[in-house]
Write a structure and sequence with these properties.
The complex is a heterotrimer of chains A (75), B (463) and C (412). With 75 residues, chain A is α+β, with helices and mostly antiparallel strands. Chain A is built from two helices and five strands. Chain A has one domain: Alpha-Beta Plaits, CATH 3.30.70.20. Chain A has a three-stranded antiparallel sheet, covered by helices on one side. Chain A has a two-stranded antiparallel sheet with strand order 2-3. In chain A, a hairpin with a 3-residue loop joins strand 2 and strand 3. The longest helix of chain A is centred in the middle third of the chain and has 10 residues. The radius of gyration of chain A is 14 Å and the shape is globular. Chain C has a single domain, classed as Cytochrome P450 (Cytochrome p450, Orthogonal Bundle). In chain C, helix 8 crosses helix 9 and helix 11 packs parallel to helix 15. Chain C starts with a helix and ends with a strand. The chains are: A alpha+beta (75), B alpha/beta (463), C alpha+beta (412). At the A-B interface, strand 1 and strand 3 of A face strand 3, helix 7, strand 24 and strand 25 of B. Chain A: Its cofactor is [3Fe-4S] cluster.
């Protein structure tokens, strides 16, 4: 799985992501963006296209694989 | 640091503790590693989950388009940290440099970042708050539980409070075809953040989408049935709303109680810190090893008369965390101030609402582009003859221009024509914000005087 | 007398490499010769003006340009077609663009462009299959032109076999966007208007036909749509269709040709692309920065006196925003003259910004990605037969007229 977040302060609704990866990004009305916070590995290539095409570079995607033990509770 | 090598030692083998494992905590941790911090890093979080993103919780998740437990934040780099999740911090010993945890463990630090954020304000009557079907929405678990209940198709949802979160919830419920009543104490939705002129547009949007919007009323009591399920709400106008799901959306409370008595300048209004994110102690002296970032921090902003600004904004949490992290491991001359112009967004009823600056500081508003009736416009807010904020309804691409006006303290009303100024925009209107002494649900920006050592603030327990 | 920088930009002799002139220009971020337009060449100023509501795209807001040798040909009153949304301001612009977007993109048609991937791939591979003699290929004639024309025809529902009819009109109209100091503005305006009129008549017939037998194409949907913004008038429909038809291929031809030219000048990147077609994504973004198909926007005007970098630009002045120069501004891009697909945070101006940002951007991106990845994969040992290649006259929509290359063979 790939994690996604969009900095919607930056987003200006150019909708490039929603054109190029409609499985992950959808426009809600003319300008508001909804995105899947997690996407299948199978969509990684489209996600990369969407992120690269964002004119304001607002799409954040996992840059590292989260190490398995990294989030376990260390109590 | 005095060039005695102590900074280098800190970066090499120091101990940094971050209390709060959400957006600000994670971004700070990533920044620390990106800037070469090689010592031990501990992240402490009261929830048992790794850092997740909150904005989808009131939108995608309630619409059934995403699962609440699938909202973890993307990792921009490896943080190589020890995670203490599900264990809230319960105390701070500033002299000893230790954070105490709920399991009585203590974690020593050389530098501490506090990013404990806020929590949802609960329904004040405890017995009613515990009725089945009464929800708040702040955490992943809140959102999951609410989404499950909405899935069951309740007969009517009641949202108490029409701030941004309440309005987004109402929007999602309507989109799912659920009957929704919204009860708002103020004259209109969003009125605390955007004033009455723009609030009237928000009200129109709600009604056009079939929300039973009731303004100027308070919910006086929630009533349960024999099995302990909520069945009705009683309103101050004497009416009753039959409902099986109630969402209490009355704003947030800052998570600072655990700092009571610690000597840190922390209270219900947050943790006072300087523009470099260093926290003040109760004497008003800035600490050099304790930093604050995100929703819980409040710091002076040069664009707003150096008043202390506390911002419950996603962008603020991310940027302030980066600055705090940088400053924690920098020489004093290399520190940078947190001066970002406040900005936030909301999407509701198919409209994208974005704001820059601090509209709630404005006394007047001018519709400089578009038209209120189209729900597509820019509102510019003025305060004492200068532009102090702006809001865009489905007009986001123009907003950078208005941000520049705010940054350059440009004159209000703006003396120039724009590409589509129409009849709305001929003159400024009274922005119609509610009396600040009357609490509202809406504002996500609050200002306080320059009083980090205010005893009342420090010692009054929250509520 | 030395030529003004403005004339140097327009001078055909500089078409192959205008970037040194842009570098000169950036020394004066707001450049103005008496009687000429105000030329903005630095990144932050261009970006800021693209988001400035005091800047109009509507030529009717221009002050008189009488006596200005660089003035654009004026729209004649009796012009066959009103301006398309590219040359309009809000609210008309917003309304028309929304209506045009309805059958093209999200929220109403989110799968239109994404759903063209298979078709794009097939067209591209068919064109490469059809390349005859690998010893001498004109990439423009054999690939970069036919590809986007085929795509826009299918998208709009324009019969591909009519290409020879609208090609000349489209070229004339595209050329009229190019400010030419030496041409007689009246003559040029007349030529462009004639072309617009004829293109309009051609499209009118087509639309009539689509109204009777609507298909899945955009023309049919635009002609029959009734959305929240109502329907377009016939004149609006014709203007919009003309705009899409012209913009839909005149620019993409150049993006693809400039792209292959740039890759052939950077064989290391070409090799990487051959090995990993996913590199096409950042390659195209960097191309949009490095060699943008629209070099400058010469069509904006001020609605008030505005101050830019200490210079007051008077109301009604003509503004040129030199996107290609902003893209090479060292204040924004490190080592800007280096072609580097690994460049982080590449917020180029290649497709504009603000409300007039390129309507067809997602399609142009996909077309260029498919085209360059396929060329890289299939051409064996490709090389340029002449460098620089011969360019088209146009300084605004800048690109090679021909790109002669050869290769050892075509891989299957």
């Amino acid at each position: 799985m790939v994690r996604i977040a969009v900095d919607l302060n930056r987003c200006q609704g150019y909708a490039q992501c929603a054109f190029l990866a409609p499985e992950i990004f959808t426009m809600h009305g003319e300008e508001a963006l909804l995105y899947a916070p997690e996407a299948d590995e199978a969509h990684r290539a489209k996600l990369a296209q969407a992120a690269a095409a964002c004119p304001v570079q607002a799409i954040l995607v996992d840059a590292v694989d989260v190490p398995a033990g990294a989030v376990s509770d260390a109590r | 640091m005095l060039g005695d090598g102590s900074l280098e030692r800190l970066k090499r083998e120091g101990r940094i503790v971050v209390v709060g494992a959400s957006l600000a905590g994670l971004r700070a941790a990533e920044t620390l590693r990106a800037e070469g911090f090689a010592g031990s890093l501990t992240l402490i979080g009261d929830e048992p989950h790794e850092p997740y993103d909150r904005p989808p919780l009131s939108k995608q998740v309630l619409l059934g388009r995403a699962a609440a437990d699938r909202t973890a934040l993307p990792r921009l780099r490896s943080v190589d940290a020890t995670w203490r999740l599900g264990v809230p911090a319960t105390g701070l010993d500033m002299a000893a440099g230790r954070v105490r945890l709920a399991d009585d463990d203590e974690v020593p630090y050389d530098r501490l970042l506090i990013a404990t954020g806020v929590r949802a304000r609960a329904w004040p009557r405890e017995a009613e708050a515990e009725l089945d079907g009464v929800f708040v929405l702040r955490t992943r678990d809140d959102s999951a539980a609410l989404a499950r209940r909405l899935e069951e198709g309740p007969k009517r949802v009641l949202v108490i409070g029409a701030g941004f979160t309440g309005s987004e919830i109402a929007s999602a419920c309507r989109e799912r075809g659920l009957a929704v009543t919204v009860a708002e104490r103020g004259a209109a939705p969003l009125v605390g953040a955007l004033g009455g002129v723009v609030g009237a547009v928000a009200a129109e949007m709600q009604r056009e989408h079939g929300v039973d919007l009731r303004c100027g009323v308070m919910v006086t009591a929630l009533e349960g049935d024999a099995s302990g399920r909520v069945r009705a709400a009683h309103l101050s106008d004497g009416s009753t709303v039959e409902t099986d799901v109630v969402i209490v959306s009355l704003g947030a409370i800052r998570n600072t109680e655990w700092l009571a008595g610690s000597g840190l300048g922390a209270g219900p209004r947050g943790i006072a810190c300087d523009a470099g994110c260093r926290a003040f102690d109760i004497r008003g002296i800035v600490t050099d090893d304790i930093y604050a970032a995100g929703d819980v921090a409040r710091s002076p902003h040069p664009l707003f008369g150096y008043q202390f600004l506390s911002l419950e904004h996603w962008g603020n949490a991310a940027s302030q965390a980066r600055i705090a992290a940088h400053n924690m491991i920098s020489e004093s001359t290399d520190r940078i101030p947190h001066m970002e112009v406040p900005a936030f967004w909301s999407s509701q009823f198919g409209v994208n609402i974005k704001s820059v600056g601090v509209p709630s500081l404005g006394t007047e508003v001018l519709i400089s582009q578009g038209a209120l009736r189209d729900h597509r416009f820019i509102g510019v807010y003025g305060y004492q003859g200068r532009v102090i904020g702006a809001v865009a309804f489905d007009q986001a691409r123009w907003l950078p221009f208005y941000q520049e006006l705010i940054e350059t303290t440009a004159a209000f009303p703006p003396p120039f024509p724009t590409v589509d100024r129409c009849s709305d925009g001929q003159r400024p209107l009274d922005a119609d914000f509610p009396d600040p002494s009357v609490p509202t649900h809406g504002p996500t920006v609050t200002l306080g005087g320059y009083s980090p050592a205010d005893r009342r603030m420090t010692f009054t327990p929250a509520h | 007398m030395t030529q003004s920088l403005l004339h140097q930009i327009l001078d055909y002799a500089n078409r192959a490499n205008p970037y040194p002139i842009y570098e000169q220009l950036r020394k004066t971020p707001v450049h103005h010769d008496d009687g000429g337009p105000y030329v903005i060449s630095t990144y932050y100023e261009i970006r800021s003006l693209l988001h400035d509501p005091r800047i109009s795209s509507d030529a009717r807001n221009l002050a008189s340009t009488a006596g200005d040798p660089l003035a654009e040909p004026a729209q004649e009153e009796e012009s066959a077609l009103p301006p398309g949304f590219l040359r309009l301001d809000p609210p008309e612009h917003d309304r028309l663009r929304r209506m045009t977007n309805r059958p093209f993109g999200p929220p109403h048609s989110p799968h239109r462009v994404d759903g063209m991937r298979g078709e794009l791939h097939d067209i591209v591979s068919g064109l490469v299959d059809g390349i005859g003699d690998p010893g001498r290929i004109d990439l423009v004639e054999q690939f970069s032109y036919p590809f986007p024309v085929t795509v826009i025809c299918r998208l709009l529902g324009v019969p591909r076999e009519d290409e020879s009819r609208f090609h000349t009109w489209a070229d004339t109209i595209a050329a009229s966007l190019d400010p030419d100091p030496d041409a007689d503005p009246t003559e040029r305006g007349k030529g462009a208007n004639d072309a617009r009129m004829q293109l309009g008549m051609y499209l009118a017939g087509l639309i009539e036909e689509r109204r009777k037998n609507p298909g899945d194409d955009m023309l049919s949907q635009l002609a029959t749509a009734k959305g929240e913004d109502g329907s377009m008038t016939t004149m609006e429909l014709l203007s919009t269709a003309a705009l899409l038809l012209i913009a839909g291929h005149e620019t993409t031809v150049n993006l693809i040709t400039n792209g292959m030219l740039t890759l052939l000048r950077h064989p290391d990147v070409l090799q990487r692309l051959r090995e990993d077609p996913r590199l096409a994504v950042p390659v195209v973004e960097e191309l949009l920065r490095f060699e943008p198909p629209v070099q400058l926007v010469p069509q904006r005007t001020t609605l008030a006196d505005i101050e830019v970098r200490g210079v007051t630009i008077p109301k009604g002045a003509s503004l040129w925003l030199v996107l290609a120069s902003g893209n090479r501004d060292p204040q924004r891009f490190e080592d800007p003259d280096r072609f580097d697909p690994d460049r982080p945070d590449n917020q180029h101006l290649g497709l504009g910004s603000g409300i007039h940002s390129c309507f067809g951007a997602p399609l142009a991106r996909l077309e260029a990605q498919f085209a360059l990845a396929e060329l890289a994969r299939r051409l064996e040992n490709p090389r340029l037969l002449e460098d620089p290649p011969p360019y088209r006259q146009n300084a605004v929509l800048r690109g090679p007229r021909h790109l002669h290359i050869s290769c050892d063979g075509i891989r299957p």
